[in-house]
Amino acid sequence: MLWFLNKMCTSKARLVGKIVVITGANSGIGRETARDLYARGARVILACRNMEMANKAVEDIRNNPPSRFNKDEYKNNAGELAIYSLDLSSLKSVRDCAKNLLTNEAAIHILINNAGVAAYPSYEKTEDGNETTLQVNHLGHFLLTLLLLPKMQKSSPNCRIVNVSSIAHLIANIDFDDINLERSYGPIKSYAQSKLANILFTKELARKLKEADIHGINVYSLHPGMIPTRLFRYGDRVLFPGFTFCCNMFMRFFYKNAEEGAQTTIYCSIDEEVANETGLYYSNCGIATSYRMANKHQYPEKLWDVSCRLLHLNPEKDFTTILETVSRQMH
Predict the structure, then answer these.
(1) Which residue among 101, 156, 214, 329 is the one 20 to 30 A from 229 at the CA level?
(2) pTM greater than 0.90 (yes/no)
(3) Is 191 assigned a catalytic role?
(4) pLDDT > 60? residue 233
């Protein structure tokens, strides 16, 4: 990685007594984020679909500190690790996971919506009838966040919701009449749309919280950097044969490894400087400018309305009512 492109989170914040939920924390930047926050003393919950991979991740995190910690210091000061089952392609699984978290955890201070899929070669729908990439990357996290918000309210102040987006939003637009892309599916298109949705959701959620006079919960979205993760495992099939090889050849100068790629997520989750910021987009451990459609005036609210309808919620209702309704759906 070119050193000048890569900023590390320098905050020394400790997280003893804090409870963190990270979706998709069994590999890639999710696992490195979990490792760092565990090193700071947090109780870190890995909310994952694949239990076998989650168990291996827990073992790996326990035994291997982040690069700037020595082993003894790590072992003595680390927090706790727990695994919860979460499959974002099933809204029932999202509700079950939320219910388990609300029942078993004393508080939730930080929610990191990190899990993601990219570029399914062919069009796929979930059991709930939504295009898979849209549901896993956006809608499942949208629902999980609404379900956990009341608990976070009780856990505030200084609670944070962090949505991992991508620079891919640069090429995205959203057709709100065909958000499931039934008429115009393309693997890259669906991924870019879902990453744009992460930024729009961040903006609108920050606005809704302010409007409802709910304080002490801040919302962030970010681009982690170019990271060769499992996310692009379909690259050779979707783009062209040899895509992975070419990426590895040409991008090695710009790639971050997973630990470097986790830094902006960590920064948004713990850094003292951003404690009073909300609704913004970050890259390389600093505020960044989101592109084109992410700045369209009506888009955040439009996406909110469409997302509510896909979850059978009435977007016309006020925010508190929506939270009550979504909580009732869980039982």
Answers:
(1) 101
(2) yes
(3) yes
(4) no
